[in-house]
Amidohydrolase
Amino acid sequence: MLERIQKYRRDLHQIPELELELPKTQRYLQEALRDLPCSLSSPIPSSVVAFFDAGKKESIAFRSDMDALPVTEATGRAFASRHTGCMHACGHDGHMAMLLEFAYQLSAYYKELPHNVVLIFQPGEETPGGAEPMCKSGIFEQYHIKRIFGFHVWPMLDKGVIATRRNEFMARSSEVNIDITGKSAHAAKYQEGIDAMEIAARYLLDLYTMEQEELSAETYRLLRFGLLKSGTVRNVVSNAARMEGTLRAFQDETYQYMKKRMLELAKPYEEQGAVFSFDINTGYPAVMNDAALVDQVLKLDPNIVLLEKPEMISEDFAHYQRRVPGVFFFLGTGTGIALHAHNFDFDEEALEAGVREYCKLSRME
């Protein structure tokens, strides 16, 4: 098993591609699956779907992302990226290798299963999002998919450890850009201006107070800004400020509440003459693991670790869970190297645990 996994992962690691245009990756997957007893299709460009038909009415699905990142690799590995400025720095090469090896294992027993099996290789997870168009392609209806599973390698867990949790798992995330327009004036006559810098500073603290004090401590959420830019010279009141941050939550009502309050808290400053312009993108929904399905999984494998808290990063696997019950897992690599780092790497032995878990999950009633 390990030899095949290593080959898959290291081959794919050398040909990273971005977003929704992954022709080399798609061809590699198709060639690796071609001789297995499954039918292949491509519901959206660059995707690959492998269908193992056990002659049953319903199917279960397993998903791997395919795309890489615009990162210049610095691992020094013999199988490093051959595409300058592009790297599998988030482990998607490992996810694909796991699903390919699972396909190989599945070939020996899929006809014994109480359902068919669908393997989904999806482009565009990092950006702009491939899961939603995959859902809209009709594959869930075509194959009568009743549940779905997926993994992400996780450097902060020990190698081979599998972890998940009920309900909140990974956050809904939106980028927030706010432009504030005021009026310039000389600092000696600041009363004649509208100080966009001061307004932005006060407004930022208003937002942080709202996020901390108006929502329950038990509600997982985040509103944080990493950029506040204003002013051109020391003795002139700034006429413009820009704030860039992120809004994250799990429940839609929490997300909508914070978004509404952002607009409301701007109004007192607008009454002073400032003009606010908001650009808040939709982002991915929250990854919410089906609690009943998690319980089934834990009965199947009590060694799975239950995480105390969810992660505030996002994943477009969430779109699948809005169609059918699903569970997303973390698979420990034990390296401590951050996702998206230019030196991101891991030992492929960790992936064996993921493949074994896929095989267990495939046998669930």
